[in-house]
Amino acid sequence: MKLGGYDVAKVKCKGYEIRDDLYYDHDRNLWVERIASNSVRVGFDPLGVEVSGTLAQLVVHPNLGTLCRGDAVGTLEAEKFVGPLETPLGGRVVAFNEAVISDPRRIYADCFQAWLFELAGVQSEELATLVHPTDVTKDFEERVETYKRAGVLSW
Known about the structure:
Blueprint: E1 2-3, E2 6-7, E3 10-13, E4 16-19, E5 23-25, E6 30-36, E7 39-44, H1 46-52, E8 55-60, E9 66-67, E10 72-78, E11 82-86, E12 91-96, H2 98-102, H3 106-109, E13 117-120, H4 136-149
Antiparallel strand pairs: 1-2, 3-4, 5-6, 6-7, 7-13, 8-10, 9-12, 10-11, 12-13
């Protein structure tokens, strides 16, 4: 797969395609892509899309200041989940993907293209709190099994 002129690898894992060049926040089912030395782009990973159910609405909070990990950038309304959309890292929201906010169904076409928001002012050491790309396959397999045992995934 080509993304921004670069080859990006997708790996099959437990029936899902995941990218092995991204960081992952397994608590929030989000991926994080470093786009500059202190800036990242954030979106739902395939498991997050599946366990949330059909996305009905994403509402973002305007005029956000500096956020800490876990702070809400908006709210998510889905078939299986209604609640806050939390940031996986601290920083300032500098952009929202307006196309996805206005039509959350875009996430189903390719969740890795349908990013949600961008953060600036991210501290590099905070990335270490996320699942590193080299560990993503093992982590993803464990999360799928956890969701199966909990009855969130049926297959």
